[in-house]
Amino acid sequence: MNIEFCTIKGSPYIGVFSFANDEIALIPKGTPKKEIDIIEKTLEVKATETTIASSSLIGVFVAGNSNGLLLPEIAEDSEMRHLEGLGIKVKKIRGYTALGNLVAANDRFALVSPMVDSTTAREIGKFLEVEESIGRVAGTDIPGSCLAVTNKGFVVHPNIASREFKMLIEKFGVKSGAASTANFGDPFIRNSILANSNAAVVGAYTSGHELMRIDEGLSGR
Length: 221
Fold this sequence. Notes:
- The protein is α/β, with parallel strands linked by helices.
- The chain has one domain (9-216): L-arginine/glycine Amidinotransferase, Chain A.
- Helix content is 29%, strand content 27%.
- It has eight helices and 15 strands.
- The strands form five sheets. It has a three-stranded mixed beta sheet, with helices on both faces. It has a three-stranded mixed beta sheet with strand order 2-3-4.
- Strand 12, helix 7 and strand 13 form a beta-alpha-beta unit.
């Protein structure tokens, strides 16, 4: 699998500032052209510069899959119109803000934090057109931060239990997965990676060993 190193606006925590699926990537306004080029060429998508809730913390606020994007209740109407104008299906989730931390999804399944009520979890699953379930990952209530998942595989927090790992393989319908850190020790893997079914971009501090584990998890082999 093609994996490239990158920063976003100088930060190695690229997942905090960005979101990607198999169609698009959302990145902060003012991202340097060199970084945009790496993201677009590696992931084979068009990168769109935007804000969410007037903030550059796109990866914290946005969750979703190829069927649509979930936006926080504090997202601006102008931001929603901008994304809809690009042909992106969006939905504002009332009562929640850090959806990128609370939801991990691909085109088959969504794992939703226990901090989200069951009615909203069902709303999320219906909008994303997937089965959804409420659950923890590696003992935390923030599956969106602990798990970087695509339609081929995933990379997950290193404290994942074996039974949880097997469940993730089954529910997300992928062939591969791996437990790893990124950026030289960050266990909240989604903070440091931007991935889709084509490839991945990782934070610039990611070590060689971490890179091998990430490739193993996302390769789909």
